[in-house]
């Protein structure tokens, strides 16, 4: 694994503009992804995970959305400053994305083969025969049987798991250096979920592709990720290697997420749930954004926004909480 990250997001700020003014959806988010690494981004619906991924791809609808600050460095190139023409070259070729519902991402009017071949030809400029063979090879790589026959099928003729495998084949067909997977298993049943996750991990190892996996499912994170970012209300509240997050969670929100996961070894009448709801974007102007739901809240949390602190004795572990200012923790 090289020291230079494939993706380096620095102080990213993405907002949506309405009659009520600017509504920040992603607020000064920073993280990096190394070659061959699988990074998980976790949080409840509305925390800014998907907006972060769409910002990286520069697919935020304008208007009302806009990247208003920060940098997105892909192999050192700042995508924020890149033209739409340049982004069309980058999308699919250097960075690709898998969306959560493949039926809305695949065109129902064209065969699987047509859609795979078109993407390959746009980015590689190879002939149709060679593109056809490359598409068949990709379908085989993602574990689809009768690949040649599937090339002639339409999306509605395939099951949900097969469509998701086609989407992964399409995303990887030009061998991108970075793959963003936004809730790739949400619409699938548990057995197919496990197959898709195993497939992504296997392809990550074979092709050395860096993956950003966006999910709300901590079981998925434990299964495939090496490092985890926890987001809340548009901000990163904790970041650590995956085992460190599960063994030694530091932010009250991360603790709440882990306590909410059902444990088959315990017989509980009622599952734990974090009190309250995720705040509307832009509704909290001062203080910690988790303060209204936090059992450890104190006066300072209501007026000041905590920075990221490095956790003592834990490598690469940072947390956005005043509780960790004590005990010699250093502001990151």
Q: Would you kindly provide a brief summary of this structure?
A:
The chain is an alpha/beta fold and about 325 residues long. The chain has helices at about 50-55, 85-90, 100-105, 110-125, 130-140, 145-150, 160-170, 190-205, 220-225, 240-245, 250-260, 300-305; strands spanning about 5-20, 20-35, 40, 65-75, 75-80, 95-100, 180, 210-215, 225-230, 235-240, 310, 320, 330. It has a 9-stranded mixed beta sheet with strand order 6-7-8-3-9-10-12-11-13, sandwiched between helices. Strands 2-1-4-5 form a 4-stranded antiparallel beta sheet.
Gyration radius over CA: 21 Å
Please identify the top-level CATH class: Alpha Beta
Indicate the structural class: alpha/beta
Tally of DSSP β-strands: 13
- The low-confidence runs, each spanning 5 or more residues with pLDDT under 50, are 327-332
Mean pLDDT score: 87
Number of domains: 1
Instruction: Look at the structure and name the CATH superfamily.
Output: P-loop containing nucleotide triphosphate hydrolases
Helical residues, percent: 25-40%
Q: What's the number of helices?
A: 12
Strand proportion, as a percent range, falls in 15-25%
CATH fold-level label: Rossmann fold
Q: Outline, from the CA principal axes?
A: globular
Secondary-structure element string? EEEHEEHEHHHHHEHEHEEHHHEEE
Query: How does the major sheet shape up?
Result: 9 strands, mixed
Distance between the termini: 24 Å
**Which strand order spans the largest sheet, edge to edge or round the barrel?**
6-7-8-3-9-10-12-11-13
CATH architecture: 3-Layer(aba) Sandwich
């Amino acid at each position: 694994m090289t020291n230079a990250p494939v993706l380096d997001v620095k102080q990213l700020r993405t907002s949506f503009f309405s009659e009520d003014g600017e509504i920040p959806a992603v607020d000064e988010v920073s993280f990096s992804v190394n070659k061959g690494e699988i990074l998980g981004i976790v949080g409840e619906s509305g925390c800014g995970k998907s907006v972060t991924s769409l910002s990286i791809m520069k697919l935020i609808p304008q208007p009302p959305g806009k990247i208003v600050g920060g940098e997105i460095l892909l192999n050192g190139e700042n995508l924020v400053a890149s033209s739409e023409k340049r982004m069309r070259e980058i999308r699919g070729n250097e960075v690709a994305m898998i969306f959560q519902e493949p039926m809305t991402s695949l065109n129902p009017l064209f065969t699987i083969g047509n859609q795979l071949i078109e993407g390959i030809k746009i980015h590689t400029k190879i002939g149709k025969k060679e593109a056809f063979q490359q598409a068949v090879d990709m379908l085989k790589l993602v574990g689809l049987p009768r690949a040649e026959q599937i090339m002639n099928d339409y999306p509605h003729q395939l099951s949900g798991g097969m469509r998701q495998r086609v989407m992964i084949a399409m995303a990887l067909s030009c061998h991108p250096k970075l793959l963003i997977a936004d809730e790739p298993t949400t619409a699938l049943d548990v057995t197919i979920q496990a197959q898709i996750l195993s497939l992504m991990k296997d392809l990550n190892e074979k092709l050395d592709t860096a993956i950003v996996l966006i999910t709300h499912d901590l079981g998925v994170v434990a299964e495939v990720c090496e490092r985890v970012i926890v987001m809340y209300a548009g901000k990163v509240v904790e970041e650590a290697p995956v085992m460190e997050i599960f063994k030694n969670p530091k932010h009250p929100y991360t603790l709440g997420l882990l306590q909410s996961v059902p444990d088959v070894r315990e017989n509980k009448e009622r599952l734990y749930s974090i009190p309250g709801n995720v705040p509307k974007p832009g509704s909290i102007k001062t203080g910690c954004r988790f303060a209204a739901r936090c059992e450890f809240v104190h006066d300072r949390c209501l007026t000041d926004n905590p920075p990221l602190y490095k956790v003592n004795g834990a490598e690469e572990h940072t947390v956005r909480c005043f509780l960790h200012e004590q005990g010699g923790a250093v502001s990151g």
